[in-house]
Every structure is written in C-alpha cells, then in structure tokens.
Amino acid sequence: MRVIAFRVWGDYAHFRRHFTTSSPLTHSIPPPSALRGLVGAILGFSREEYPEKLSLDKSLFGVRLLRPVKKVRLGVNYIDTKDGAWVSKPPKGRLHTQVRMEFLKDPDFEVYFHHEDDGLMDGLSERLVQHRAVYTLYLGITECIANFEFFWDGEVQPFEGVSNVLSAFKLDYLKTFKLETGTGIVRERVPLLINAERERLDGDEVAFNPYAGPIPAEVENVYLYPGERDRTIAFIG
Q1: Domains and CATH numbers, the chain
Q2: Residues 17, 191: Cα–Cα separation, whole Å
Q3: Which of 197, 202, 209, 201 is nearest to 234 (CA)?
Q4: What is the pTM of this model?
Q5: Can you tell me whether residue 82 is helix, strand or coil?
C-alpha cells in the first residue's frame, strides 16, 4: 500500500474536545478530522470539498508523536463581532471575554496518508516536496500556525505479531502490550470526520504513547515502517 509521510509542527496547537465548553480542553494528538483539514489545506480543498474528497471510504490517516505531549493553559481574549458591536461603543463588559484554554506546547507530529486515487497522492507528494501549500496550515485553530516538511513516499507492507508500534492505533485492534521503562499508554476518543456543516459524524477510541516513544504490542492492521524490521505504524481513521 502506498503511503505518504510528512512532518507538521508549530509553537502551539489546540484540537478541541467536543464535550468542553467554557474552558476548552485539547486532544493530545491531531484527530483524523484535523488531519483531513491539513491535507485539504495543502491540496487546496475548501471546507465544503474535503469531507467528500477525503472521506472515510477513500482515505486513511495515521499520526505519530515526535515530541512528548506537553500541555499549558493560556488566557484567550474573544471579541464580540455580532451586530456591529466592535464598531460602536458596547455596554460595559460586552466586547471582550477572556477564556482559559488548554494548548499543546511545541507540538510535533509525523502524519501518514493513503488515498485510493494515485493522482491525488502524486499531487500531495509534489506539493510537500516543494513546500507549497494552497492554504496556510494551522494546528486546530487559526491562531496556531503550522510548518510542514516532506518525509517519504513509498510502499508499506502489512505486519503480524508483536512489534514496536510508533504511531497511535485504534484501541479495538490492540491484542497485547508490554509496558517498559519510558513507555506509557493512554487512550482518547477522537472525531474521525467533520462534514461541510461542521457536524461531528463519527468517533473512535485510539491509544498512543504520550512520551513519543514506541509501544511494544501486538496490534492488528499495522504496517512496517520503511527500512525497519519490527517498527510499525497504524491508521486511525
């Protein structure tokens, strides 16, 4: 199976957990819904286009932590722009609202992408190599601008048995795992797809090592990382 891998990183990231409101919390990794947005931005797909062109039945996404998860809380000022509030003198306290938000600090990820359309894969690979995205990339929200670079484009082979799993994987696919020094495992429920109406359509539980290391485990539907014998990657949506 052909897979494209690229790195994406920034100073901050915020992938909002859908059940948080006044004090938004963030996922520890970019969920598949956000990864679809990243690839869509590189290729120039609009919000209305990418949910269909990068749908669950056409594409696969995986993600690997390149740095340990680090979270901070920052105050963010929101401005009321409804009904022209910002152009006239508003009632006291109406214009600005400060919210405490949770952010990922110094996020750094390796993203894996497969699509049934080789032409689309060729276009993405070319843009990654040339470092030429159609739209500006950001990590969750527009205030978190991201950088990116091409890693590799090649074939990956299925693997069975115990391996060192580098990426996040679906919890349902986990058979056994072994905790060693420096290894951790956490799970999160992440959204898989958000449609053109910004509705969350589906979700799944995934597991990963928050310390950015591999997890010695037996996991279904994993693939050998190019050039490795026992290090594997998985797709989460």
Answers
A1: 2-234 (3.30.70.2660)
A2: 9
A3: 209
A4: 0.90
A5: helix
- Here the tokens at position 220 are 């279904």
Say yes or no to pLDDT of 87 above 60: no
Give CA separation, 23 vs 17, 76, 98, 100, 190, in Å: 10, 10, 10, 5, 18
Burial of 180 (0-12, 13-18, 19+ CB in 10 A): exposed
Residue 159 pLDDT > 90? yes
Q: How confident is the model at residue 209 (pLDDT cuts 50, 70, 90)?
A: very high
Where is pLDDT greater, at 175 or 83? 175
Structure tokens at 185: 């495992």
Does position 167 have pLDDT exceeding 60, yes or no?
A: yes
Helix and strand numbers (H, E) in the chain are 3, 16
The C-alpha atoms of residue 102 and residue 76 are separated, in whole angstroms, by 10
